[in-house]
Records
---
Amino acid sequence: MRLTSPRGGVPRHGRRFLVILAVLFFQAALLLTAHPSRADEFSDGLPALAKGSYDDKIAAASALVATGDDRAGDVVKAFSAGNLYVRKSDGAIFVGRDGAPSGQALLTDPVSGQDLGAVSESDYEKIRVNNKVRRALDELAGGLALLGKDPAKRKAAAAGLFGTSDASQAGRLTTALEKEKDKGVAAAMRRSLASINIGDPDPAKRLAAVKELANSPDQQVRALLLSRLVETNGKPAEPDEEVRTLIDSTLSHINLTLQLWNIVGSLYQGLSLGAVLLLAAIGLAVTFGVMGVINMAHGEMIMLGAYSTFVVQQVIAAHAPWLFQWSLAIALPTAFLVSAIVGIVIERGIIRFLYGRPLETLLATWGVSLVLQQAVRSLFGPSNRAVVTPDFMQGAIETSVGITLTYNRLYIIAFAVVVLAALFMVLQRTPLGLQMRAVTQNRRMAAAMGIPTARVDAFTFGLGSGIAGLAGVALSQIDNVSPNLGQGYIVDSFMVVVFGGVGNLWGTVAGALSLGIVNKLLEPFAGAVLGKILVLVAIILFIQKRPRGLFALKGRSVEA
Amino acid sequence: MFSMKALKGWAAAAAVAVSAATGGQALAEDTIKVGILHSLSGTMAISETTLKDVMLMLIDEQNKKGGLLGKKLEPVVVDPASNWPLFAEKARELLEKDKVAAVFGCWTSVSRKSVLPVFEELNGLLFYPVQYEGEESSRNVFYTGAAPNQQAIPAVDYLLSDDGGGAKRIALLGTDYVYPRTTNKILRAYLNSKGISDADIFENYTPFGQSDWQTIVSQVKEFASQGKPTAVVSTINGDANVPFYKELANQGVSAKDLPVVAFSVGEEELAGIDTKPLVGHLAAWNYFMSVDTPENKAFIDEWHKFIKSDKRVTNDPMEAHYIGFNMWAQAVEQAGTTDVDAVRQAMYGQKVKNLTGGVAVMNTNHHLSKPVLIGEIQADGQFDVVWKTDGVVKGDAWSDFLPESAKLTADWTYPWVCGNCEKPKYPVLQ
């Protein structure tokens, strides 16, 4: 019979004793030899970052932070950003910076702080990180940033520690919390501390943690609380009955709040989809709604607007980089002009010969749309072009109740309102608008009054196309800039205009918003595909009942 | 006795006819024609144009080495314009009119399904370079892209592993057509076998070109906040990816909390997006441009020289064409003819060096053995490999995780000679 004994032969408590002895000895040695100029714990710990599995790298990084050395923060941050290099010849670690020319790296020695400048990348190797390492590193960096100067950064660091699996962060949070004066930052720290304490062995501490978390009922908290109820082998993670009851009641409270806010969220998403539809359709409301031209190339006008944005950004990046934040503002008039001019050329070259022949117009403009698509494809290539989103349009307003209001969508809603207002101004307050309305209401009478109807037709078509170009600038921020961009919007645009009532701008607005909101309210239940089908069926039924759409024009002008 | 004689007679006549035909061809033409069947216009042009270019490059390279069998290769490029029925027409044109020796082409599964009857009727040879849903093996097609067990299954294994975040809930997002639906069916069966119940799987399909992802990203966030580590498996195809990733970035979904692994997003697709907010999201392929091998470096240099721009990226289907074309060229040299039946026999066991290291082998089920890599998106639009299989994985035409296809075998050599059989066509001799 064999005796079972721990690996290595030394009894367990004996091993622990040895470890303690070794640590004591090591610390004593450190105390004795501590000297600023020689290699220290920090530089000794560095090479381990490049070795072993992902778990080994995490362990090496936490050991480095545990030294308490100030230089560790920069190394951890660079590591997380994938900017840490190891020299192939001797395994020394260096911190890289962005902006190096291709094939080279800009490196700094983390120990001495000495700048190596640009060096050939082939002598160095980037240390690999994956999501797991990055998560651990960001928590380590967050722990270090808790005592920083900038309150916003402290708050972000505290929030980043929410739900961390690294229990040693609790000590850091407690220390930071004692010193913290900013109320918002302190709240974030208490929240993250509670998220750690919820796994504490002491039931009283866990109870207090749940009470603290109940103050901020959001998705993160719900996820954390639910994870305490997950059962493994029939036992929930939370052993205490009292704590579980509190978790249950907190959860039902959170769920109710979140459900209510979900409806608000869907409405906002519907509004923003409505704004996109409105932008895409409003140009068509002019060419199709006011002039009666079935313009299948409308989508390509949007596409041209998006490509104008791309070209403007390229030119700015090459010649005037300081203007980059303004690139979209510069792209707006450019896109308007490009699309408007192309529109006028199409009107003068093709459509004017086909007035009163809708079928031929449809086929001819469809042909034009294919020509434009292929022209752009030959000129810019078939692949997507990257349009950069300026910084102020990135990110989102994160509310604590699980709704995110993304900035790009907010800007697009505002932009749709501005474009709509501008179009109304042009139609109602300018001579061109007056002439447009006169020509579309009674062409012969307008001609008799001396209005150059042919020129007005051209300008009206140009205006509709130009507005489509403006929509293209906005859509370049949320969609692909590819030759196929327009195709995705042409059917939706016609749907909006027909549903809203041909010839009525308010109808287009109402049509776009109601389609957007109905779509978004249906989508969570029916799914995107079925939702679209349901909306389409509803519109067909509606048009059967009211062939002229939501807001039908009345009176004599309808027949003209 | 009579029938035996007749059979022999027929066989002899056929042999004479075949040799006469090939002999006549050799006299009439001094080039070998290679068909390229990729959309150069329409929605798929974004992906397929590059493949046409890479084929032209490979043919050009082969011609510089002296062509094949002492003849130059001549590319025949046609444009099926992203129009599925047109694919079948163009395939017929290539095989009947141009009499090409082999065709390299197709991207979407529906285009492949559309040309399949034509290739089988006219006994042509198609090299299909794109990862696909499997559940198919045709005698006339060599599948050089990944089958589900060479992409989807290893990717899910990684997500469930400790290194990949130990996911316990999986959201399957896809575009609504055959590839995502079949792949997700296989994945669901696989996840169930790994102990993940249907309650922890979220499946959602969107139309082609979906541009408004607000609802779905919110739903996924909601799904992910149920107390278990969650990951997303995306079979979203083509243009819909850019708005999807933009919405993810804007709604603050970071790869650290909710990694997305994609099967249809490569270097080419990322070229249209600012990838800084996407760092850490994943893709599973058999090839990444960033892999540092001498073969890959030579291939990228050659590509940049050919396309006259060092900004252009390379991707997985390009490597698939590289492997497929070189295997075909070797098989033609070995068979000493471009005759389809002879080349097909010579294809089995053909080896070509992968650009990412190791050797790809053509199996008798018409699928390759290739390594599987998982890469994380980097800020520069490239992928950094975070995990790879130890060796090569043999492509499996019929998934082992679907009960009805687990019993099927694809093997085009004796005694099977079948793409979807439960038992061999011919008696097995001991």
---
Amino acid sequence: MSQSSASELRLEVVPPKKIGTNLLAAVCILLVLLIARSFWHGQIEWSVVKENLFARPVLIGLISTISMTFAAMGLGIFLGVGAAIMRMSENRVIRYIAIGYIWLFRGVPALLQLLLWFNLALIFPTIGFGDTFSVRTVDVMTPFVAALLGLGIQQGAYTAEVVRAGILSIDKGQAEAAAAIGMTRFRTLQRIVLPQAMRVIVPPIGNETIGMIKLTSLASVVQYSEILRKVQEVYYVNSRVIELLIVATFWYMVLVTIFSIAQFYIERHFSQGWGAARTSEKTKAEVPA
Amino acid sequence: MKPIIEARQVQKHFGQNHVLKDIEFAMGKGEVVSIIGPSGSGKSTFLRCINQLETIDGGYISVNGEIVGYRRQGNKLYHLSDREVARQRQAVGMVFQRFNLFPHKTVLGNVIEGPVVVQRRTVAESKDEAMALLETVGLAEKALAYPAQLSGGQQQRVAIARSLAMKPDAMLFDEPTSALDPELVGEVLGVMKTLAAMGTTMIVVTHEIGFCREVANRVAFMDQGRIVEEGSPDDILKSPKNQRVRSFVSAVL
């Protein structure tokens, strides 16, 4: 009696067939193949793409794109952290200056800001301090500087809100504990609050860095020789428009992929102490027996 | 004996709410004082004022004879700078109800943070001392674990070690066992008893009446922002004079 009831309980679970989902997947694969095929047979001279992939002007443009991404993000993060801290100041004037900065530079389109910086000489022919020091604006406002200011300053306005959210996400007890062991407010921010806030800040900053890689293409309008402008210069000569745009596409994809991988490792670094399972292995290895 | 912590006529408001009223308090070196009383009576606020996590509106608090938070010139009190306040806070260690360990640092990293970053002592020396302190609280083998990997009781013991690492003149405990599972309360109280036996000057805000009876030299009862009655544990817990204290004690015992 008890044996038969035991065998009755040994029931087998039959996985569902999911015919509809599999069918949809098959249709998707078919569509992708069709798109790939049409590009293959389209009016694209793939040999031209191949020739220009590592051409000198393209690589110069690539390097300019990378350096502008780093420079603009660097400026953006610097301004963003500063504005975030000012935004949380007890002093109303300081707070409103930060709010005003964020409001203004987040509100004006990046392309428009680039043009404004580049044409600054129309408002201020010279810049300096009174008579002691003065330079012609056109000499200072090179394409690089205009692009850096335009992109970096508007990035700072976005980053400020990200950093502020990160700082606000840290429990007040953390700052109190730091104060209780005699840390100054600056030390507390630097050693305790910001490193923890990074966990919240890094993913959106990573996103914005990836956005910045592509946003640098706007700098072509102020004559900055980033990759898009460089391939344009090439196709103005040889008329291979699509081929060279594909070259640029290729490099943007490469950059975005590399940055995405880097972001993964940076995020992992700042999540130290939270991933209990992963750190326990490390801990075990490090504790001397 | 010169008091190590002294409060005179301390007043504190939160908006319209008068949370500390005419607090008079003094304790000497090596004393263990427990502050008990109902929730919202101002016990924690008073403790936080000693460490300047809250500012007071009237009277003064002094630690080691130095008025906290202000510099006196004639009859005027001037606010101290952030740096000066930070220096004064090193004289008193604080243990929080919710531990507040730094989650991004290991246990050892938490304990050496103050000595290395604030007191600018060498990492090697600080590590040696930190390991000795972790030995005292019974957690030397957890030195390289992260706070998230520890139980509440273990985290609170690390927090105690972190405060002790600054070599404070007095330790403040703000309901150190209130956030713990009942079975973990004992290990934290055990460490605190050890500290008391070693002669540590301590103020303990607590609901652990047993701890008051066994360890405290003195018990202060607070209600509605006032110290209502103060005396030896026997006096307060067995034969309180004040009616409010009597009803509280009979309710918790």
